[in-house]
Prior knowledge:
Layout: E1 15-22, E2 28-34, H1 35-38, H2 41-47, E3 57-58, H3 59-74, H4 79-86, H5 89-112
Antiparallel strand pairs: 1-2, 2-3
Helix pairs in contact: 3-4
InterPro entries: Zn_ribbon_recom_dom (IPR025827)
Pfam families: Zn_ribbon_recom
Protein name: Recombinase zinc beta ribbon domain-containing protein
Amino acid sequence: MLHDLCRCGICGAKMRSDYGTRRADGSRSRHYACYWHKVGPKTREIKGHQKCPLPLIPAELLEWQVFYVQLMKHLGLEPEHYEPLLDTQHKWDGKIEGLEKSRSNVQASLRRK
């Protein structure tokens, strides 16, 4: 739905929609990921980019927020009335910190080898 329309808040790359692994009931989850998060290591090396730390974002969450903002704009509400309701940054802070620690551990491990 929003494939290539959204940009990563960390590195500015396009966000891509993707499907998760198939569940036991046959359904699949959908999510959005930064291009530099999902692309393979060889491409990142060729292009001189590192893996973006932005975690996968559930499609329903992102699509609902975009819909909600458009609805609020259509109703004539000013951003200061609805933006606090959309602030989910704090939800990702812990995940980003955890990913940064993991990356640091992996880098330290690679240096020891």
